[in-house]
Amino acid sequence: CGQYFCEDHRLPENHNCPELWRVRTRSPPSVERERISVPRYEVKEPSIMYPFKAMRKEWTSITEIYHLTIGAAVVMAVGLSLMGPGFSWVAYIIQNPLAAFSSALLFMTLFISHELAHKISAKHFGLWAEFRLNVIGISLTTLSIFSPLIKVVSPGTVVVSGVASKEVIGKTALAGPLTNIVLAFLLYSASLHPLCSSTSVASGALLSIWIALLNLIPVGIFDGAKIFWWNKTVWAASFCISLILLMLFLFF
Fold first, then answer.
1. Can you tell me the distance from the alpha carbon of 155 to that of 157, in angstroms, rounded to the nearest whole number?
2. Cβ neighbours, 10 Å, residue 207
3. Are 223 and 174 in contact (CB under 8 A)?
4. SS3 per residue for the chain
5. Is 216 in contact with 180 (CB distance < 8 Å)?
6. What angle, rounded to 10 degrees, do the helices at 62-81 and 88-95 form?
7. How far is 121 from 92, CA to CA, in rounded Å?
8. CA–CA distance, 106 with 72 (Å, rounded to integer)
9. How far is CA 220 from CA 123, 157, 217, 225, in A?
10. How far from chain centre, in Å, is Cα 241?
11. Phi and psi of 39, rounded to 5°?
12. Tens-digit pLDDT profile for the chain (252 aa)?
């Protein structure tokens, strides 16, 4: 404003300078700011750490063979108990031992193939995997031998160890039901051949597709829950194929 003030009031804001508006309306000096490039990091899908087990190069172990043998024997016994209502299956085994044990062996093979498919898939992805009996499972399966109505066939499962992505978990879970779907189709095709025993082979095809369909239920500990979590399209396709094959086996 061109006036003179003491040291305490010489600044424009200290003496209510009438020309203070010029300062307030003045645009701030342009300052070129250096652009800082922030690196973009790709967000990777988190991996799942299964309980750690000592990694061994051997494909199997004595412990697994022991558990697998007991599980297979109990499952085969359940298969024998399906030969007739109540305890009439005992008489059927005595009268037709070859047919009875052949059907029970097929029943056991369908179960073992399902579990081994999980193991092979897990080993393919570099994970540790071995079959282990479960106390509750083996107990219920053993009781199913003598139960005339309820049959539970789940003596154990394949235990997996290592770091796995969602895709690896889903594919490992899919291996079991997919194996049963393929076996069901092959058995049904074989049952149409005149040289095959259509009754036992067709029953094996029906049982195999039931195993696949049951395991594809997307809840709880079933394989379907892991497949659904990984890829809903793959789960839907697998479930629909199993359902279509079941309808085919039942009505055609």
1. 7
2. 23
3. yes
4. CCCCCCCCCCCHHHCCCCCHHHHHHCCCCCCCCCCCCCCCCCCCCCCEECCCCCCCCCCCCHHHHHHHHHHHHHHHHHHHHCCCCCCHHHHHHHHCHHHHHHHHHHHHHHHHHHHHHHHHHHHHCCCEEEEEECHHHHHHHHHHHHCCCCCCCCCEEEEEECEECHHHHHHHHHHHHHHHHHHHHHHHHHHCCCCCCHHHHHHHHHHHHHHHHHHCCCCCCCHHHHHHHHCHHHHHHHHHHHHHHHHHHHHC
5. no
6. 100
7. 38
8. 11
9. 24, 14, 8, 6
10. 17
11. -65, 140
12. 666 666 666 776 666 665 655 555 555 555 555 555 544 544 455 555 555 554 556 788 999 999 999 999 999 999 888 887 767 778 888 888 888 888 899 999 999 999 999 999 999 999 999 999 999 999 999 999 888 778 888 999 999 988 889 999 999 999 999 999 999 999 988 888 777 756 788 888 999 999 999 999 999 889 999 999 999 999 999 999 999 999 988 887
Please identify which residue in the block is written with the tokens 């006036």.
3
What's the residue count for the chain? 252
